[in-house]
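Methods — Computational structure assignment.
A single polypeptide chain was analysed. Its primary sequence is given first, followed by the predicted tertiary structure written as structure tokens.
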Amino acid sequence: MSSTTIKPEGSPAKRVKRSNKLTRSATWFCFLGLLPILALFTYIRLIPIVKTFYMSLFQWDMVSPKKPFIGLQNYITLFQNENFLISLKNTTIIAFNVFLFSVPFALMLAVLILNQVRFKSWYEAIYFLPFIAPMVPVTVIWKWILDANNGLMNYFISFFGISSKAWLLDPKLAIVSVIMLTVWKTLGYNMVIFMVGLKGISKEYYEAAAIDGASGIKAFWHITVPILKPITVFVSVITLIHSYNVFSQIYILASDVQGAPGYVVRVLVYDMIENGFRFFKMGYASAEAVILFLIVLALTLIQLGLAKERTSSKKGLS
């Protein structure tokens, strides 16, 4: 009769030591694997941001070898400059109008396509195509559509007895044109994100609400909207950030009038590029970039704050 001897796996202290060693090895492996990406990100992103903050404190131009330190003078001059204030105003108007139209309409489209429409995949593709299309050729097409003489937009509104409009020459209509283009371009992306969130909502919530007599708009308002709050915050902030960085559509749509005294659609990014690379005032342009960075940072912090609030409320309910 043979007996088998079972060797002990070792003391608990040895097992803990072996586990810690494996954890350290995995940590170093992950760090070394990410090191090239982190180095590239630091070189492309972090160093330029730090240098931009540094340059904004100097009278930095691309001609003179002397770059005297002037502290916050660039920022003081910034808020006394009419061009910057116009740019900030136009950018804010565009950003918040794109937000107000793009986010609610994207949510409504997502709900309708998921619940009321056949061939959902086709509609998703149709609405998502503008987002993946390159901005430059799309804007060129829109410029032709909005042309004051031969554009399709004026031809369309003529059926309703409305006279032709100078969409790209009148300051107010030019901003409206940029908003229309940007909403059309971003609507599909926001819709797809909302659809992902809607598919993750269990039908049991709606069944329970139907038993209590809540359906339709009541169920949407009391179930769909609260559950989609994190996704709504994400979509809202991403939309605002992208809208504050608007440039390509402005430059192409109003390229022939951008430098006119009326400043038809002057925005922050264009003003920054003009001051930096046309007038060589890199210190001043860097101050503008810092202001834009702070706006984007503030919007990101708002997103994190709202998401944290949502997480805290969930813990409180549980």
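Note: The longest helix spans residues 12-55.
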